[in-house]
């Protein structure tokens, strides 16, 4: 099975002086996800938690909703000419009776950190396939001071990032700020899939009283994954995309961007944010 990190020789230049030394890099390998034996998608990922990644991906696609929907996940042998197991192909088998939706989308075959469909069709698809409408979940109130402290806690939990500097991370916190889980990956969407997949395997979906924090920007796809897992609050240390904001507004997702220190922008779902400052003007 692939390793999380690998070593490569690097020439370092510091103040004009050259030296040669090994450097630790984050590993990146393809993972093919098959559904009941049929190829579905390929994503570039950091090896590890592959079964959770595949399960979380299928939650986002509306295939899986609870642990009982999943029969098993296995690595597939025969992915190479000599028939050996590369541990880069997984087959997800659904339980008898699980209805498989039409997921022959343009994103099929290859997915990246920027993948996802665009436009109103995507918004409609997420809204109509979400198993746990966020607007119908019990009210959650999140303190701004609690939110402000989450990025530092996420950074402190990024063990592989400290050695490589090349990983995104996603973390789940309770509404009271308890760190529930954290995953790292070269793709921020994969890190979220790993979180959601582990929650599915543990029987913890929907994640209706949690906060999802991502280390980069908040794309449409990350907002989609939050909505499909029933997560009411998505926070990002960087900017959201316009389509992510549209999706949040349509589904009731609380979306926070540019979460840096005590500063943040609330783009949607502000009713869940408990403010301690004077009312905004303008």
TrEMBL record:
GO terms for molecular function: sulfur carrier activity; sulfurtransferase activity. Belongs to the FdhD family. This is Sulfur carrier protein FdhD. It comes from Streptomyces brasiliensis. Keywords: Cytoplasm, Molybdenum cofactor biosynthesis. GO terms for biological process: Mo-molybdopterin cofactor biosynthetic process. One of its GO terms (cellular component) is cytoplasm. Gene3D superfamilies: 3.10.20.10, Cytidine Deaminase, domain 2. It is found in: Cytoplasm. The active site is at residue 115. InterPro entries: Cytidine_deaminase-like, FdhD. Required for formate dehydrogenase (FDH) activity. Acts as a sulfur carrier protein that transfers sulfur from IscS to the molybdenum cofactor prior to its insertion into FDH. It comes from the Bacteria. Pfam families: FdhD-NarQ.
